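Narrative of activities, Objective 1.

The group set out to show that a structural description can be obtained from nothing but a protein's sequence at a throughput compatible with the screening campaign. Below is one input-output pair from the validation batch, recorded exactly as produced.
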Amino acid sequence: MSFSSNVKEELSHQLSPARHCQIAEMAAIISLCGRIQISEQNHYCVKIHTENLAVARKYFTLLKKTFNISNDVSIRQGVGNHKSRTYTVVVRKNADAVRILQATKLLDRYGEIEENLSLAQNVVIMKNCCKRAFIRGAFLAAGSISDPEKFYHFEIACATEAKAAQVQGLILSFGLDAKIVLRKRYHVVYIKEGSQIVDILNVMEAPLSLMELENIRILKEMRGSVNRQVNCETANINKTVSAAVKQMEDIAYIRDTIGFDKLPENLQEIAELRLSRPEATLKELGEALDPPVGKSGVNHRLRKLSDLVEHLREQHPGT
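Output recorded for this entry:
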């Protein structure tokens, strides 16, 4: 299973002990993947459709625990290019449907279907624990998380801008930086920072998935650190080798044009030492001199030889 499926599987087994939290989670599931139907006789029917068995199982469990309603889960196998299964849970009995809709505040006192998307006045999500439950239900119904081995991305797709703003507001209330983007016909609430996705898993109460993501993040950071160090060391080695090759070329040019006898003693000494030890570092060259010289002193002498070569080339162009 994918990481996203594993998270939903874990959340499907996470059941809040408080009834008000169970109602908040159910409200989110109905809001994001549910459908409310009214017959000509004014009878209500509540349906949820999902392609994820964990979501159907969680909704089924909430119906049983919260309202003592038992329903069957129907399964339909897709055909053609769309072969995934669709799970449907239907509450057909009018009295049961009305109880659910009234408890989740999706039905007003006049019998009209109206969802309260206010964050401040919506009694379903007044408490922090209920906000957690609502976000959990919203993710179960319409959310996904990318494979953290590849990149970090958490999202919940909403059918309307108002619903997306509600979900975003709930996530923001926990100090997380959720944004909204319009993708095709959906308003998508998303988080892209790895550490914040860890935090949202904590908000939804998915400790196993949280630990798995943290382990992946640590390994990725370690690999990134090692790669950066290797790249840095490789660049330094390449730089050192290139500098040594240039120094050897300059010294050979001096030897073949004016000879080392024309050089001051300190430059003659470093030139002969570099030719005899082409692989040595500046520190090793300095330690081999008598008396020893520091890296900056060796570099200064080699730079003087390089300046001399430039001067000689100007006097003897083409050589």
